[in-house]
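::Encoded backbone::
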Amino acid sequence: MAHRFLPHDLVEIGTLTRPHGIRGEMRVDYYADSVDLLRGDAVYLQAGSQPPRKVTVDTVRLHQGTPLVRFTEAPDRTSAEYLRGQTLLVPESSLPELEDDEMYLNDLMGLSVVLDTTGETLGVLEHVLFHGEQEVWSIQTPAGKEILLPAVPEFVADIDLDAEVIRITPPEGLLELYL
């Protein structure tokens, strides 16, 4: 996956997946806990490696647990279709304060992922996917292979932001599926 140009103060909070209905609403693969970030006046979209552009959120609502967002710039299904796959960004300053034991997903991107038992480096955390309520980490190996790891406490032993290392204990057989 090619890295996109991101101004240092913008943080990725989701991806527009597909239109919903005929009124321009888009389904969002959303990384934040609350849709309140989408209600702010500083929301940006980015297509591929193009620079982000500011957009105006018209409406935000939840539909069966999935955020739906409509932008003033895309008032119907046809115009919303052009937004498919674009990244949703907000200024880092709009993010809520974290507790001491919390961190943003954005802070984890690019960290080395190692096996807790052996210290062997598997690769780097490249991307985070969300399948329903499940957070799945995409780990890119030096050989260019992708390992998908459910990001649950029993598989994530430790995250050390200072050392830039994530220690994992994958379930038996998982690595053999990918490597």
